[in-house]
Amino acid sequence: MNRQEFIIATAIILFAAFVLGWFASWLIHRLSRVTRAEIGALESMAQELHEAEEARDSAVAQLEEREADLVARLGTAESAQKAAEDELAEARAEIEELRAYIDRKLGR
């Protein structure tokens, strides 16, 4: 094989490799191309995701509002309980005073 035959063989091999690479690239792009139906499906999924995020945000807001309401009601209930305990303690002290007074008057 002389120099000119070697150059021609190398050129043919490189050209064949180029054509094969170009064909493989074209085939991959052809098979992985996104269709209009897929784009429509992606758009509808994006819309559904947006609506789901809005619903989640709304639910979180309602939950926070409900939690604030329950915390306020708990504070009110705790203050009412404290007031009732104070009144009960006063009533017990008054009962003890009355018992002591009755015992003194009856001479026991």
| Beta-strand content | under 5%
Order of helices and strands: HH
Number of helices: 2
Number of strands: 0
Oligomer status: single chain
Structural class by helix and strand composition: mainly alpha
Q: What is the gyration radius calculated from CA atoms? A: 44 Å
Enumerate the spans where pLDDT stays under 50 for 5 or more consecutive residues.
none
Q: Based on Cα principal axes, name the global outline.
A: rod-shaped
Q: What number is the mean pLDDT?
A: 93
Distance between the termini: 140 Å
Tell me about the largest β-sheet: none
- Share of residues in helices: over 70%
Transmembrane segments: 6-28
Keywords: Coiled coil, Membrane, Transmembrane, Transmembrane helix
Coiled coil: 42-108
Walkthrough of the structure:
This protein has about 110 residues and is mainly alpha-helical. It has a domain at about 1-35. Helix content is about 95%, strand content about 0%. It contains two helices and no strands. The chain has helices spanning about 5-30, 35-105. Keywords: Coiled coil, Membrane, Transmembrane, Transmembrane helix.
